[in-house]
Specification:
By secondary structure, the protein is an alpha/beta fold. About 40% of the residues lie in helices and about 15% in strands. The protein has a single domain, classed as TIM Barrel (Alpha-Beta Barrel). Strands 2-3-4-5-6-7-8-9 form an 8-stranded parallel beta barrel, surrounded by 6 helices.
Length: about 300
């Protein structure tokens, strides 16, 4: 199975906050990000308590003393080994992967997963399958069945795809979380994105006081805290000394239709939030969830 991330230390299992660098793409003019690039950008992120990045330059990361993870796609069983070799050769610690299209049969789905497990073991490089729309894990129930057939599977949890895509609170949410426990137990990397039942990425303000987007039938921010805490507890339940779990905020731009734009009175468009500032809020929420998870284990 894909191994846990481990730094070889005798430290207790812990959380590390990385930043998916897609968060910094095409930031709005009102962003507090200082518009740095290269090693200066990596050093600035380190100063702001980010311990690594995803989809950056591993050499720059090493130069400033932060971690580095990669990502990729696997559409065929023959893709997994090549991707693992590529990401490892670049100097990444792990890779998160979108797998397939979501139109695969169970047999095709399993063949893809087995190829990922085999490549992770042979190359000694963890590939974590992302819970994502338009992939084999787009459906929570089908993903649960996958864990029963192939218990060794390990995930990059991006729960916004389940929460919005399957409108999780529509019905008995607690029962759905109980059913999803096999997924939570197998999360070894996480993407931070918070949305409501209709929009996958919305402004959450300071993460404490309600902003207008949080008002409605459901307190979706509390729901995401619970999902993150459950996944973190799943990691902690079997983690060893030196193991760490990465949560990387991935708050994407309007180019990908995640960041929403709204019309101002003069007709110009303004992005809903400063995605970099939101990443700092996500980081604090993640740390609070990890502390809560430690109390559950």
């Amino acid at each position: 199975m894909p191994k846990n991330l481990n730094d070889g230390s005798n430290l207790p299992p812990r959380l590390k906050i990385y930043l998916n660098l897609g968060t910094l793409m095409d930031l709005p003019a009102h962003s507090i990000w200082p518009q740095l690039e290269g090693a200066e950008a990596m050093a600035c992120l380190k100063e702001r308590s980010f311990e690594g990045v995803q989809d950056g330059d591993p050499e720059l990361c090493r130069r400033v003393g932060i971690g580095s993870a990669g990502s990729g796609r696997i559409d065929s069983p023959t893709d997994a080994e090549a991707l693992a070799r590529k990401l490892k050769s670049l100097g990444h610690e792990a890779g998160t992967v979108h797998v397939g299209s979501g139109f695969e049969s169970d047999a095709e789905m399993d063949a893809l997963v087995h190829s990922i497990l085999k490549a992770s073991a042979q190359i000694d490089f963890p590939l974590y399958i992302e819970t994502h729309r338009a992939t084999i894990t787009q459906d929570a129930w089908r993903t649960i069945q996958l864990t029963q057939r192939i218990p060794e599977v390990r995930f990059n949890g991006d729960f916004s795809h389940f929460y919005t895509g399957q409108e999780l609170p529509y019905g008995d949410l607690e029962a759905k979380w109980r059913a999803m426990q096999p997924i939570f137990d197998r999360v070894r990397f996480m993407h931070g994105r918070i949305g409501n039942t209709a929009c996958m990425q919305v402004d959450i303000g300071d993460g404490k006081s309600n902003v207008p987007q949080i008002f409605g039938a459901h307190n979706f921010l509390a729901h995401f805290r619970e999902m993150w805490t459950r996944a973190m507890a799943g990691f902690l339940a079997s983690a060893k000394l030196g193991d760490y779990l990465v949560l990387a905020p991935e708050i994407l731009s309007p180019d990908y239709y995640y960041g929403r734009k709204f019309s101002l009175p003069d007709g110009t468009l303004r992005e809903e939030s400063d995605r970099y500032a939101q990443a700092l809020v996500y980081a604090q929420i993640a740390r609070e969830c990890f502390e809560a998870a430690k109390k559950r284990v």
